């Protein structure tokens, strides 16, 4: 087990290093940020002065070394667009909004997906099962950005029930959370269904039935508890797609979170902010993967010896 | 004397003939294929002939014309026009061409890279395998959209960059799939015999192993076309995909976002086009998987 954990931790660190190199390299090819900051009539000395100020005159590997050293301390430099603010402070400022949205989306998708998945498995082949299949198919086929606009059009423009954009109370949260959670519903539901089918077929469920335990208790207590291990393990995938999905959803609803920040930063070539966001998100994503792998190996010893 | 009846008598509760033939029809993926042909392939191939107007040029005098069934709509612009007076139907038809070209090129190139690396990793094993599979793991652990945003922002939006982004994101799945199958196939007797007969590793990989993974590759590629079209249109929507002047579906939905109060059709029709295309591709992919390669169930 210790060996397994050590190997997986090493792999995760490697993935993070590669990601940081890609981000660092790409941010540097994306063009000289000084061009964006200075007016056209700027003198050569102005360029030199600014380059020195931002450390852009040093060789690349030195820049990368400095970048990593500072990144480990959570320092990604000052934002180019919002002068005087550090990139990390901008991200930290926006993080609560994104977490609020992602958490609510996860809640909505779990509330919807668990019962539908269980019912679809219990009544396999029925119209309930077909309906679940259709929901799963739609979940995979609907583009999130378009779903957001459709919801906005129906509930904000035509019916005028909910606000169309921005952050505020619970009312502002509903449409973006549904948009973001929609795809997860399909993913979680399919997993719950397939693992429920497996559990329903097992010996201890037959025993529970033979013992005369009411069917609802067999399904919702004995089966669901055992079937929820598999969905738990895709939590990493779900957390990852919630974080990256927030980029699209926040753009649609102008939700003031990290996703909107990074899209704005990409457009205005503010690469300090892009680096901070991408590395942070990639870190969270890779960490979730790692935790789940370890959890899974702990729960299922066969994995450790593969 | 044996009875030689040719008609079989059905019990009264059997399904009538039309239900039975419907079940026969349902065994073939007619609806997704018809939708695909109707929406994607034929318009894409014959875009200049089929589309009623030029997708790039509009007249400002007829801007934001609603679709024909609404007040102010005309039969000239069946699905209305956008804010520059460009015909929506023509733009959607050209959008099909763009989506199809971009995703097919990306999947083809990504598939070739992934297949070759997968074959090499599976066949040679050891170091080679370890290195390639670490690359696969890393590539699959990268957050897709963020990586694409950074890549496109670095080089600017164009066809080339979008296709490159998609290839970078796609190859790993093919490599993993092919490597797994190669590991199983290379243990079989006919590979050992080929080796004894003196076949080179390249010949064994491409002549003997490759034909056995083609089915899985076709299934994966079909399942991915829908995903790639979604990804490409999401990127275009974010302004990090195809150039804004192109009639790509994602760009069109993005154009319509700010017009949602006054002109709903600008964002609705391209979105419906994306949805129906991806839906029919997914249905077709599921069907292919069930019939060609049922072991890929959890793909």
Largest sheet of chain A: none
Oligomer category: heterodimer
Whole-number radius of gyration of chain A? Answer: 24 Å
Tell me the number of helical segments of chain A per DSSP (H or I, 4 or more residues long). Answer: 14
Mean pLDDT level of chain A: 77
Determine the strand fraction of chain A and express it as a percent band: under 5%
Q: Which features does this protein show?
A:
A: 306 residues; mainly alpha; 14 helices; B: 299 residues; 69% helix; 0% strand
Describe this structure in words.
The complex is a heterodimer of chains A (306) and B (299). Chain A has helices at 2-29, 33-37, 44-54, 60-72, 87-122, 127-141, 144-158, 170-200, 203-210, 215-227, 229-233, 235-252, 258-267, 271-299. Chain A is an all-alpha fold and 306 residues long. Chain A starts with a helix and ends in a 7-residue tail after the last helix. The model of chain A has no long low-confidence stretch (mean pLDDT 77). Chain B is mainly alpha-helical and 299 residues long. The termini of chain B are far apart. The A-B interface holds A 11-12, 14-15, 18-19, 22-23, 26-27, 29-30, 137-138, 140-146, 149-150, 152-153, 157, 164, 240, 243-245, 247-248, 251-252, 262-263, 266-267, 269, 274, 277-278, 281-282, 285-286, 289 and B 134, 137-138, 141-147, 149-155, 226, 230, 233-234, 237-240, 250, 253-254, 256-257, 260-261, 264, 267-268, 271, 274-275, 278-279, 282-283.
Structure summary:
The complex is a heterodimer of chains A (306) and B (299). With 306 residues, chain A is mostly helical.
Write the layout of secondary structure elements.
The complex is a heterodimer of chains A (306) and B (299).
Chain A: H1 2-29, H2 33-37, H3 44-54, H4 60-72, H5 87-122, H6 127-141, H7 144-158, H8 170-200, H9 203-210, H10 215-227, H11 229-233, H12 235-252, H13 258-267, H14 271-299
Chain B: H1 17-26, H2 30-45, H3 47-50, H4 88-124, H5 126-141, H6 144-155, H7 159-185, H8 189-196, H9 201-238, H10 249-257, H11 265-292
Helix pairs in contact in B: 2-4, 2-11, 4-5, 4-7, 4-9, 4-11, 5-7, 6-7, 7-9, 8-9, 9-10, 9-11, 10-11
């Amino acid at each position: 087990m210790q060996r397994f954990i050590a190997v997986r931790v090493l792999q995760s660190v490697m993935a993070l290093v590669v990601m940081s190199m890609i981000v660092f390299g790409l941010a540097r090819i994306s063009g000289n940020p000084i061009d964006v900051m200075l007016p056209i009539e700027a003198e050569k000395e102005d360029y030199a002065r600014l380059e020195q100020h931002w450390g852009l005159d040093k060789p690349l590997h030195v820049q990368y070394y400095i970048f990593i050293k500072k990144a480990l301390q959570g320092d990604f430099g000052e934002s180019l667009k919002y002068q005087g603010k550090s990139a990390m402070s901008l991200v930290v400022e926006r993080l609560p909004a994104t977490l609020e949205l992602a958490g609510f989306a996860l809640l909505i998708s779990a509330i919807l997906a668990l019962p539908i998945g269980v019912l679809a498995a219990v009544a396999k082949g029925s119209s309930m099962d077909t309906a679940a299949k259709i929901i799963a198919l739609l979940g995979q086929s609907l583009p999130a950005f378009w779903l957001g606009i459709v919801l906005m059009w129906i509930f904000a423009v035509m019916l005028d029930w909910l606000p169309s954009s921005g952050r505020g109370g619970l009312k502002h949260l509903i449409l973006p959370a549904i948009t973001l959670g929609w795809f997860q519903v399909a993913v979680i539901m399919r997993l719950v269904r397939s693992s429920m089918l497996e559990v329903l077929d097992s010996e201890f469920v037959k025993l529970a039935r033979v013992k005369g335990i009411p069917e609802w208790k067999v399904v919702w207590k004995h089966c669901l508890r055992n079937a929820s291990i598999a969905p738990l393990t895709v939590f990493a995938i779900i957390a990852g797609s919630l974080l990256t999905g927030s980029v699209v959803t926040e753009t649609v609803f102008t939700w003031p979170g990290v996703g909107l920040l990074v899209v704005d930063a990409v457009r205005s070539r503010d690469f300090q902010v892009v680096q901070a966001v991408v590395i942070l998100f990639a870190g969270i994503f890779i960490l979730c993967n790692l935790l789940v792998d370890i959890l899974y190996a702990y729960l299922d010893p066969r994995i450790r010896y593969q | 004397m044996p009875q030689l009846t040719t008609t079989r008598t059905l019990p009264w509760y059997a399904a009538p003939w039309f239900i039975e033939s419907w079940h026969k029809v349902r065994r073939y993926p007619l609806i997704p294929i018809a939708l695909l042909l109707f929406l994607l392939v034929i318009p894409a191939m014959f875009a200049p002939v089929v589309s009623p107007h030029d997708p790039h040029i509009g007249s400002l005098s007829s801007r934001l014309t609603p679709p024909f069934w609404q007040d102010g709509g005309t039969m000239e612009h069946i699905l209305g026009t956008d804010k520059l007076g460009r015909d929506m139907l023509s733009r959607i038809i050209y959008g099909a061409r763009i989506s199809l070209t971009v995703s097919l090129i990306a999947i083809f190139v990504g598939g070739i890279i992934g297949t070759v690396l997968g074959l090499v990793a599976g066949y040679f094993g050891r170091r080679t395998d370890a290195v390639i599979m670490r690359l696969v793991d890393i590539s699959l652990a990268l957050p897709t959209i963020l990586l694409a945003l950074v890549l496109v922002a670095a080089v600017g939006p164009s066809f080339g960059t979008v296709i490159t982004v998609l290839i970078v994101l796609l190859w790993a799945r093919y490599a993993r799939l092919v490597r797994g199958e190669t590991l199983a196939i290379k243990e079989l007797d006919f590979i050992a015999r080929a080796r004894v007969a003196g076949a080179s590793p390249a010949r064994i990989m491409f002549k003997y192993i490759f034909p056995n993974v083609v089915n899985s590759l076709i299934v994966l590629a079909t399942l991915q076309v829908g995903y790639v079209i979604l990804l490409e249109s999401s990127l275009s929507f974010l302004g990090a995909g195809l150039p804004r002047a192109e009639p790509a579906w994602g760009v069109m939905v993005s154009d319509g976002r700010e017009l949602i109060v006054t002109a709903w059709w600008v964002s609705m029709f391209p979105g419906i086009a994306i949805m129906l295309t991806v839906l029919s591709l997914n249905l077709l992919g599921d069907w292919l998987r069930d019939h060609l390669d049922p072991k890929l169930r959890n793909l």
